[in-house]
Amino acid sequence: MHARRTGEPDVAQADTERTFDRLVDEGTQRLGRSWPGLLATGTLGGLDIGVGVLGLLLVEHATGSTLLGGLAFAIGFVALTLARSELFTEDFLVPVAAVVAKASPPSALLRLWVVTLATNLAGGWVITWILMAGFPSLHETAIESAGTYVRLGIGWQAFALALTGGFLITLMTHMQHSTDSDGLRLVPAVGMGFLLGAGSVNHAVVASLLCFAALHAGAPFGYGDWAGLAAFAALGNMVGGLLLVTMMRLLQVPHKVSEERRERS
After folding, report:
1. Maximum C-alpha span of the chain
2. What is the CATH number for 178?
3. Which of 25, 35, 52, 185 could cysteine-pair with 73, CB 3.0–4.6 Å?
4. For position 9, what pLDDT does the model report?
């Protein structure tokens, strides 16, 4: 291999800078959504992940394999990617880049986080109610799958799995924004979806949908148990996504961040 000559363009750095520009542009658009658009996009995100939950439960019920169930769960992330809906945990990079670049105010980010999480859960509750009514044979499997998260409780393992969930989805978001190809965007969607499902990673929305399915099926735990684990998972997801991915990615292009901030000051 030959060393890069002085003055020769750094291709990797140029790609990183183009990705940052994409993040800021799309983040500004997301943060500027109307209320109807924001409500619809978040609700659709919950519905799309419900497709993955159905795949996971069907395959686990038929095979007893969590690995195959995880692979089937990735269908939900394919739907999420191609349908352009949105998960709460996808908002730890793109809109944050826009706020850091001073392209949008922090209040818009708070609005996006709160509304997207609430609508993800609302859409997820509805779709899992429909699924459990339509597939009564999956009730026992749903209760078993949700029990994995309930048994974690509030402790270090649960938080570590939540950190992992935030890290994986924010990394997926970054990988998808490094290309314009929908085909290539499906690769991280399938990969990260598989890891979340097969590893029972503590993701606030995914765990909530499985808990909702179990609650509709007559689970031995209640909504209070779900609320505690979901809040704890959301906190860990935020820390994992923001610190392990977003901060590191922004530190790759400090000059671009400074340039954007100066232009908008």
Report:
1. 67
2. 1.20.1080.10
3. 52
4. 53
